[in-house]
Design a protein that fits this description.
This protein is mainly alpha-helical. It is 71% helix and 2% strand.
């Protein structure tokens, strides 16, 4: 049983994780507008984070032989796919809109559960999906003839689909006694993602001199290296580690509630720092998307529980719970 002091500390850490994750787009967009290709920004983020996570990768090196498919899938979808689609999306549409669309992922997971795994879903979960879809319609203002960039919307939806892959992969082997440590999976996911993105982004053609310059953040000149440092150290490494720790201190459901604040943080930061103003219907729609996403993820059917070795009691479902704590995304 978690103590009240432990829960308070866990909530604080979860809030910190949501803030860290939510600030990634705000720091990345000025770099993209300064001339860096979105794929190059993604590569810098993932490669830099992978280097910092190398000690954890070495500590969990046995995962390479135990879970090669999981690590490869995690790197391709949860790291390379999500990040590439998200950063490409924010180069064309507002940060808050891109992240809100990505938060359709919990609702999309229910489609996987119902139609692929053929498991029943609750009425409350269906209500969550409907709310998320209705909120999204307000966010993109469908009554205005889809005024947003269509490709940007599709890229954001692609990020949501990649995050569904993360959800599904996180559930693989989660009920076994030797469930993989989430930190090890994240470390190797970043390494795999960096390797894939190196081939796709071809960073040797990047204009490295841009990193020595400055980027415009709503009229304020900020060193590009400082923005990149925030993306790597805060919005990736710190965000992932605190996300895992918060899930272990809280239940996945509670962590999921706090994680929904990530979209709020991103939208507010984009509003304040980038001048990306959203209309009243978009703000209301975003709130509905978050409510629907939370209902959808919290009402998803849980796998049958069984006897679990004491040493793996918390980590068994926490590997899946990490998906609710803010990834991974962006």
């Amino acid at each position: 049983m978690r103590t009240s002091s432990g829960r308070s500390a866990g909530l604080g850490i979860a809030l910190g994780s949501a803030f860290a994750f939510g600030g990634s787009g705000v720091a990345a967009k000025p770099l993209i507008e300064a001339g860096l290709d979105p794929l190059h920004v993604v590569w810098l983020r993932v490669a830099g984070s992978a280097l910092l996570m190398l000690p954890l990768a070495w500590r969990h090196r046995a995962l390479v032989l135990r879970r090669p498919a999981l690590l490869a899938g995690f790197g391709l979808l949860a790291v390379a796919g999500v990040q590439a689609c998200y950063f490409a999306a924010i180069s064309r549409i507002p940060v808050g809109v891109a992240l809100l669309i990505e938060y359709l992922a919990p609702a999309l997971v229910l489609g996987w559960v119902r139609f692929v795994q053929r498991r029943p879903v609750t009425r409350a979960a269906v209500v969550g999906v409907v709310l998320a879809a209705a909120g999204l319609a307000c966010v993109v203002e469908v009554w205005a003839g889809l005024s947003f960039d269509v490709l940007g919307l599709l890229l954001a939806l692609g990020a949501a689909c990649c995050q569904v892959g993360y959800f599904v992969l996180s559930d693989q082997g989660g009920d076994s006694e030797d469930a993989p440590d989430p930190l090890g999976v994240i470390a190797y996911g970043l390494l795999v993602g960096a390797a894939v993105l190196t081939l796709v982004a071809r960073p040797w053609g990047m204009d490295w001199s841009l990193l020595a310059g400055r980027a415009d953040m709503s009229g304020t000149e900020v060193p590009a290296a400082l923005l990149l440092g925030w993306i790597v150290l805060i919005a990736t490494v710190l965000a992932y580690v605190t996300g895992v720790v918060s899930v272990r201190m809280l239940s996945p459901q509670v962590a999921g509630v706090v994680a929904c604040l990530e979209a709020v943080v991103a939208t507010v930061l984009a509003w304040v720092l980038l001048g990306e103003h959203l209309s009243a219907p978009q703000i209301a729609g975003g709130a509905v998307v978050l409510i629907g996403a939370f209902i959808a993820q919290s009402q998803a059917p849980k796998a049958p529980s069984g006897p679990v070795a004491e040493g793996g009691r918390e980590s068994v479902r926490d590997g899946v719970g990490e998906l609710s704590a803010g990834y991974p995304a962006p």
